[in-house]
């Protein structure tokens, strides 16, 4: 296993890590991907490490993927879900986490609705923290697994690919983390979707805007399609889901018009028939389930590298 170190003690966001960190995570994930495809999928690497998964917001993929990654590394794992906890009785975030840490926990994986909750924790506790999504801010392991999936699909040739991120950019932590990661890797990025869902500042992040999704799709090698984050929308940004799917949904008909084959990605959960048609999500253009498979290897790599950093 690679002996290099990450430049950070916590994974709070992609903004804080370097291009070298990203490639180190990719190279380590490649090794773990081989391991989890063997008949014996488990390694003893984190045998003496205890990890708490703290989820203050719903999750399917991220929660299960982290738990599986931790178990494949032989860590001791405890799970916390805010919905069934004493948070409901008024306990603060810091009190909740300090009580969990009193049980001798080494690492915390946390999803929280408040942007920056992980920065606050990192200033107050000793455990290594991994951000599993904080509000509309960042979702770093999703971006790492998305970028690793592109890297893997094109046999390591990611720099010369053109990537478009489509949909609700404004409310998406996945979009922000992906943009930070892709720009650090030197990749050309465009965003596409309704103008009301594209933040005005987006060009300052080094990305271009193409409002016409047919042109955006024709331009790219890879389209990462995002769902409409209705739970984060305070006002109406478009008239109806039907109209959204008509003008901004990626359909089979649209994909068939393209001059070259496009790779289709989606971080999930998918809203079939809204941002993506089933005939696209389930087609051979789609690497959506490869993203999920790669997520376990990427999270194993992140946990392994952060645990190594703690030992120094
Ligand atoms: N992609 C993603 O974060 O999915 P979950 O919300 O199910 O974890």
What's a concise summary of this model?
By secondary structure, this protein is an alpha/beta fold. It has helices spanning about 20-35, 60-70, 95-100, 115-120, 140-155, 175-185, 215-220, 240-250, 250-255, 280, 290-310, and strands at about 50-55, 75-80, 105-110, 130-135, 160-165, 190, 210, 220-225, 265. The chain has two domains: about 15-140 and about 290-310, 3-Layer(aba) Sandwich (Rossmann fold); about 140-285, Rossmann fold (3-Layer(aba) Sandwich), CATH 3.40.50.1370.
Give the rounded overall mean pLDDT: 94
Q: Can you identify the CATH superfamily of the largest domain?
A: Aspartate/ornithine carbamoyltransferase
Number of DSSP E strands: 9
- Which structural category do the helix and sheet elements fall into? alpha/beta
Keywords:
312 residues, alpha/beta, Rossmann fold, 2 domains, five-stranded parallel sheet, four-stranded parallel sheet, 11 helices, 38% helix, globular, binds phosphoric acid mono(formamide)ester
């Amino acid at each position: 296993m690679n002996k290099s170190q990450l430049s950070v003690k916590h994974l709070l966001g992609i903004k804080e890590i370097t291009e070298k960190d990203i490639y180190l995570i990719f190279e380590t994930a490649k090794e773990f991907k081989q391991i989890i495809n063997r008949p014996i999928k488990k390694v003893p690497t984190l045998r003496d490490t205890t990890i708490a998964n703290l989820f203050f917001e719903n999750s399917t993929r991220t929660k299960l993927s982290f738990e599986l990654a931790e178990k494949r590394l032989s860590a001791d794992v405890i799970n916390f879900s805010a919905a069934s906890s004493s948070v409901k009785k008024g306990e603060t975030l810091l009190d909740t986490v300090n009580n969990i840490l009193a049980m001798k926990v080494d690492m915390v994986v946390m999803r929280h609705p408040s942007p920056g909750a992980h920065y606050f924790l990192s200033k107050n506790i000793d455990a290594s923290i991994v951000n599993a999504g904080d509000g509309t801010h960042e979702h770093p392991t999703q971006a790492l697994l998305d970028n690793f999936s592109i890297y893997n699909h094109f046999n390591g040739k990611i720099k010369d690919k053109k990537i478009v991120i489509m949909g609700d950019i404004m409310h998406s932590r996945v979009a922000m983390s992906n943009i930070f990661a892709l720009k650090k890797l030197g990749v050309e990025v465009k965003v596409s979707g309704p103008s009301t869902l594209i933040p005005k500042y987006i060009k300052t992040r080094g990305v271009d805007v193409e409002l016409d999704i047919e042109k955006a799709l024709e331009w790219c090698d890879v389209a990462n399609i995002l769902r409409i984050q209705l739970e984060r929308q305070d006002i109406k940004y478009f008239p109806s889901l039907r109209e959204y799917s008509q003008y901004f949904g990626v359909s089979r008909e649209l994909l068939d018009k393209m001059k070259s084959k496009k790779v289709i990605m989606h971080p999930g959960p998918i809203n079939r028939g809204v941002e993506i048609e089933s005939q696209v999500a389930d087609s051979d253009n789609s690497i959506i389930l490869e993203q999920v498979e790669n997520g376990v290897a990427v999270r194993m790599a992140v946990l392994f590298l952060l645990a190594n950093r703690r030992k120094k």
